[in-house]
Specification:
Helix content: under 10%
Strand content: 35-45%
Radius of gyration: 37 Å
Number of helices: 3
Shape: elongated
Largest sheet: 6 strands, antiparallel
Oligomer: single chain
Number of strands: 45
Structural class: mainly beta
C-alpha cells in the first residue's frame, strides 16, 4: 500500500502526462502542416462521328479533343496511342491547324491500335491552344475492314496522350475519360412483303376479302379488317371473324406503293350502321347522281344481311342512308340462300346497277348449291328492284365477283371444298371459277377455273376471295392469302391482299392466273416532289400506322406512321428524282427524337442525306423539319431509315417531300 505522500506525487505525475498528451493531440488536429497544392493535369477527350455500317470500307471520324497544352511544359512534340477494335484501321489523320501549331503529324499502326506523333520538322516547340471555337487536336479517319453481320457495339479509347519534353520528364494528359462508343444496329427485317416483291400489297397490316374501285387515277382497295385475336394467356388464336366490325382502305396510283387511309368503322355502337354487328367482304361502287359523285360501300353483316353506306369520296366519311339492311332474308328471291354475304356490284354502261351476292351449301347440294343471286339496284343505289335471280354456279361456295369485258358479263366465285361428289370435270376445291353471260342478269354459262387455291402457290390454304379490275389498260386480280401471317409464324386465318395480272383472251376465255410474291409491275414512277403521306408505303419493317385524330380534311394526312424504333424503316418504290433533289422535309411530332437517314435502293444503300429531329419538350407537337441532300438522281427506290437511342418510340411521321436542285 502507498503512503499518502507517494500517492500524491504519483497523481501529480499522471496529471502532467495527460496534459502533455492532450496538448500534442490538440496541436496535431488544430494546426496541420501546410501542403503544396496539387496541380490538375490537362484532360483529353474522344468523340466519334457516325456509327458503324454494314458495308466494308465504311468510314468513322474519331476526334481527339484536349485541354490547351500548358506553356510551361515547353513540349517539342505530342504522342498519342488510340486503341481500335480489330475490324477498324486508320486511313489518315487530319490535324486541326486552327488550334495546333505543328507541321508534322503522322500515324503508324501498332498492335491493338494506332500511334500518332505530332512535332515540328525543325525540332522546335509545338503548341496547342483553343483559338478556334472547338478544342479538337486531330481527327482520325477510320475505315472498317470487313462487312458486319449482326448487331454489335465497340469502344475506342485513348490509352496515352503525352507531351514530349526535351531532356526527359515527359508530361501526360489525363485520358481516363477519353473513350467513345459506336454501335451497329442492322435495319429491321422486312416480313411478308420483301423488296422488290409487290405481294402482299402491304406488310404493316392485314387485309382480307379484297374489293377494288378505280377513280380519278387511283385504285382504292377495300378489305375486311383482320387483326390478331388473343386468348387469356396473350397467345394469338384462330381468327373467329366474329368481332370484325371495321373495313380497311388503302389506295395506289402505281399498284406498288400504297397509301394507308386507315379503317372505316362500319358496325356496332360506334359504327355508321348501328343496326349491324359485323362488317365483312366489302364491295364499292361509284355513280354520278344529280351531277354529284357518290360512292357506295356494300358490306355483309356476318351472313345475315347486306348493308350499304354512302360517301362523298372514296375514303368517306361514310353514312348509313337507310338505317337498316339493304338486303334481308325477306327480300324477294333470297329464300334458299344459306349465307347472305359477299356482295359485288356492277354499274352498267346504261347507268343501271346490279348487286351479286350469296353463298353456302344446302345439305346434299354441294354440286349445285343454287345459293348465288343477282338483283337490280335502284337508281339511288340504296334500294333494290324486283326479285333476286338464281345464278346456277357449279360447286358454289362464296365470293361473288362481276365484270363487263368486251360486251360480256363475267361472274366469278369461289368453289366449295366438298370432295365426295366431285367428278373429273368438276371444278377443284377452293378455286376461283367463272361463268359468262350476254346479260347482267343471266342466263349464265360455266367456263372453268382461273385461280387455284392459295395453298397451291404459298403453302398455306384457306378460303379464296378475289376481285378483278381494270386499270391503266390492263386487267388485274386482287385476292387474299395467309402469307404475312405465315411469315409471322401465325397462319391462323389472318389474310393479306395480293395482286397479279389477268388476261382476257380473244375468244372470251380468261387465262390461268399464276399467283406469286413478285406481284405486278409499277405502272408509273412516284413523284417525290409533291407532298407525300408518310403512310404511302412500298415496303416497310417495324413500323405501324394509326388514324391522325388531329387531321384537318384538307391539309393533313388521315393516317400517320407510328411505332418507329431504332432500325425501323419504310420505303417507296420507283421515286423519280429527275435531274436531282436538293432538300428533304418532313412533318413529324413528339417522342424522343432521332435521325431519318435517306438511302437509295436498300436500307443500307447509298446515303443521300439525313435529318435530325430533336426531342420534343412539349409533348406531341407537329412541326416541319428540313435538311439539304445530294445524290438523288433518276428513278430510285427511296428508304427512310430511322435511328435513335434505346427501345422507346422515336417520333411520329406525317408527310415528306423533296425539293428540286
Amino acid at each position: 500500500m502507498l503512503n499518502g505522500k507517494k500517492a500524491i506525487l504519483l497523481a501529480a505525475t499522471v496529471a502532467m502526462c495527460l496534459s502533455v498528451v492532450a496538448f500534442i493531440l490538440y496541436k496535431t488536429y488544430t494546426e496541420p502542416k501546410a501542403e503544396e497544392p496539387t496541380e490538375l493535369l490537362p484532360t483529353a477527350y474522344l468523340e466519334a462521328e457516325g456509327d458503324m455500317q454494314k458495308k466494308a470500307g465504311s468510314v468513322i471520324e474519331l476526334r481527339l479533343l484536349a485541354d490547351p497544352l500548358p506553356p510551361k511544359w515547353k513540349a517539342v512534340g505530342l504522342e498519342a496511342f488510340v486503341r481500335l477494335p480489330d475490324h477498324f484501321e486508320a486511313e489518315t489523320v487530319v490535324p486541326n491547324p486552327a488550334n495546333l501549331g505543328a507541321d508534322d503529324v503522322s500515324f503508324s499502326p501498332e498492335d491493338g491500335g494506332v500511334r500518332i506523333a505530332i512535332r515540328n520538322a525543325d525540332g522546335s516547340a509545338v503548341s496547342f491552344s483553343h483559338k478556334a471555337e472547338d478544342n479538337v487536336l486531330i481527327t482520325l479517319i477510320l475505315k472498317s475492314k470487313r462487312e458486319l453481320r449482326g448487331k454489335m457495339s465497340e469502344e475506342f479509347k485513348v490509352n496515352k496522350l503525352e507531351a514530349i519534353i526535351p531532356g526527359g520528364g515527359n508530361q501526360a494528359y489525363d485520358v481516363s475519360g477519353a473513350t467513345a462508343a459506336v454501335a451497329y444496329t442492322p435495319p429491321a427485317a422486312a416480313i411478308g412483303k420483301l423488296p422488290p416483291n409487290g405481294n402482299p400489297v402491304v406488310a404493316h397490316k392485314f387485309g382480307a376479302d379484297p374489293y377494288t374501285l378505280v377513280f380519278d387515277g387511283r385504285v382504292y382497295l377495300y378489305n375486311t379488317y383482320d387483326v390478331f385475336e388473343y386468348d387469356a394467356d396473350g397467345n394469338v388464336k384462330d381468327n373467329s371473324y366474329g368481332s370484325i366490325n371495321r373495313l380497311s382502305v388503302i389506295s395506289s396510283s402505281d399498284l406498288v406503293n400504297w397509301t394507308d387511309h386507315g379503317y372505316i368503322h362500319v358496325a356496332g355502337r360506334e359504327g355508321a350502321a348501328k343496326w349491324a354487328t359485323q362488317s365483312w367482304a366489302p364491295a364499292a361502287a361509284h355513280k354520278v347522281i344529280d351531277g354529284k359523285d357518290q360512292f357506295f360501300l356494300y358490306f355483309a353483316n356476318n351472313a345475315s344481311h347486306i348493308g350499304v353506306l354512302v360517301g362523298d369520296s372514296p375514303i368517306g366519311p361514310w353514312r348509313d342512308p337507310i338505317g337498316k339492311p339493304l338486303i334481308t332474308r325477306e327480300t324477294p328471291g333470297v329464300n334458299g340462300v344459306t349465307w347472305l354475304f359477299d356482295p359485288a356490284v356492277l354499274v352498267d354502261d346504261d347507268g343501271k346497277a346490279y348487286i351479286y351476292f350469296g353463298g353456302g351449301i344446302p345439305e346434299g347440294q354441294a354440286a349445285m348449291p343454287n345459293t348465288a343471286r343477282v338483283m337490280e339496284l335502284g337508281e339511288d343505289m340504296t334500294s333494290v328492284v324486283g326479285e333476286a335471280a338464281v345464278i346456277p354456279a357449279p360447286f358454289m361456295f362464296e365470293d361473288s365477283g362481276i365484270n363487263k369485258v368486251n360486251g360480256l358479263y363475267y361472274y366469278t366465285y369461289c368453289t366449295n371444298f366438298i370432295q365426295e361428289v366431285r367428278t373429273e370435270d368438276s371444278p377443284p376445291a377452293g378455286e376461283i371459277a367463272y361463268m359468262v353471260s350476254d346479260s347482267p342478269m343471266g342466263p349464265w354459262s360455266y367456263k372453268g377455273t382461273i385461280l387455284k387455291n392459295p395453298g397451291h402457290f404459298f403453302g398455306v390454304g384457306g378460303n379464296n376471295h378475289h376481285a378483278i379490275f381494270h386499270f391503266e389498260d390492263a386487267w388485274y386480280i386482287a385476292y387474299h392469302a395467309q402469307t404475312l401471317s405465315k411469315a409471322m409464324g401465325q397462319p391462323k386465318g389472318y389474310r393479306s391482299t395480293h395482286l397479279n395480272q389477268v388476261v382476257f383472251e380473244d375468244n372470251g376465255e380468261i387465262g390461268e392466273i399464276k399467283a406469286n410474291f413478285e406481284g405486278v409491275a409499277q405502272v408509273r414512277p412516284l413523284d417525290p416532289y409533291v407532298r407525300n403521306d408518310a403512310a404511302t408505303i412500298g415496303w416497310s419493317a417495324g413500323i405501324a400506322t394509326e388514324l391522325n385524330e388531329a387531321a384537318s380534311e384538307v391539309e393533313d394526312p388521315s393516317v400517320i406512321v407510328t411505332d418507329i424504333h431504332n432500325g425501323d424503316w419504310l420505303a417507296v418504290s420507283g421515286a423519280d428524282f429527275g435531274k436531282g433533289a436538293a432538300s428533304f422535309a418532313v412533318t413529324a411530332a413528339g417522342g424522343d427524337g432521332g435521325i431519318i437517314e435517306l438511302r437509295l435502293d436498300n436500307p443500307e444503300g447509298e446515303k443521300i442525306g439525313q435529318l435530325l429531329l430533336s426531342p420534343s419538350a412539349n409533348g406531341e407537337v407537329w412541326k416541319e423539319w428540313k435538311t439539304d441532300i445530294s445524290g438523288a438522281v433518276g428513278i430510285r427506290h427511296l428508304y427512310l431509315v430511322f435511328k435513335g437511342k434505346g427501345e422507346v418510340p422515336l417520333f411520329k411521321l406525317g408527310t415528306w417531300q423533296f425539293g428540286r436542285s
